[in-house]
């Protein structure tokens, strides 16, 4: 998979798994790394699917309607890739903290629906990736969700449902709301950095 890797600057510092939104690349979210944690490293991956030339992490049938078979396949491939990277670069997969925006947040959430892989995750404008399944036990998992009250792509009701699903699985979920539609705004990133710094 096309990716960029930068080790953490200090042992024990986070390694962010950067997952871009539709039409993005592995370069897009790198600017967030130092804002979230000054010593962090990153593994930034480019989605393998393209939609009218725009990279994504899985196919969709329409806006907000996911191709579930492709989602399953791509989720599996991404998990395998993370396991390979962890061996190559000598980190544990649960040291990774996904930082996903939009389509990237959706595949991050779907990985978490599949397996207890991560201890913390930052999901920016996510949706419910799949319905009707039992999530793995997610106690001791912390999730930060940045959402838009007026996000036309990821409606607030999706955020509430996703929060509920993670909470029912035992996760500790914090939601920060912004009022700028689907845009990622600085106050959300600042809230995520604070959330990361304050371990409950
Ligand atoms: C998706 O397709 O994952 C969501 O609709 C968000 C996006 O537009 O990427």
From TrEMBL:
Name of a matching Pfam family: DLH
Xref: InterPro entries: AB_hydrolase_fold, Dienelactn_hydro
Ranges where the Dienelactone hydrolase domain occurs: 74-177
Signal peptide stretch: none
Residue ranges crossing the lipid bilayer per the database entry: none
Highest taxon in the source lineage: Bacteria
Gene3D superfamilies: alpha/beta hydrolase
Name of the protein in question: Carboxylesterase
Organism: Exiguobacterium undae
């Amino acid at each position: 998979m096309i990716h960029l890797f930068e080790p953490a600057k200090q042992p024990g510092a986070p390694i962010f798994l950067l997952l871009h939104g539709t039409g993005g690349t592995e370069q897009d979210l790198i600017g967030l790394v130092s804002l979230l944690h000054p010593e962090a490293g990153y593994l930034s991956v480019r989605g393998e699917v393209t939609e009218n030339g725009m990279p994504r992490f899985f196919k969709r049938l329409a806006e907000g309607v996911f191709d579930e078979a492709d989602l399953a396949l791509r989720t599996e491939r991404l998990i395998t890739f993370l396991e390979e990277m962890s061996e190559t670069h000598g980190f544990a997969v649960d040291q990774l903290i996904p930082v996903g925006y939009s389509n990237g947040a959706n595949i991050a959430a779907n990985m978490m629906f599949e397996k207890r892989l991560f201890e913390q995750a930052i999901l920016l404008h996510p949706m419910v990736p799949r319905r009707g399944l039992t999530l793995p036990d997610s106690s001791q998992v912390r999730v930060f969700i940045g959402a838009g009250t007026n996000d036309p792509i990821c409606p607030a009701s999706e955020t509430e449902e996703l929060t509920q699903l993670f909470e029912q699985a035992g996760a500790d979920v914090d939601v920060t709301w912004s009022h700028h539609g689907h845009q990622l705004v600085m106050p959300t990133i600042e809230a995520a950095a604070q959330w990361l710094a304050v371990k409950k």
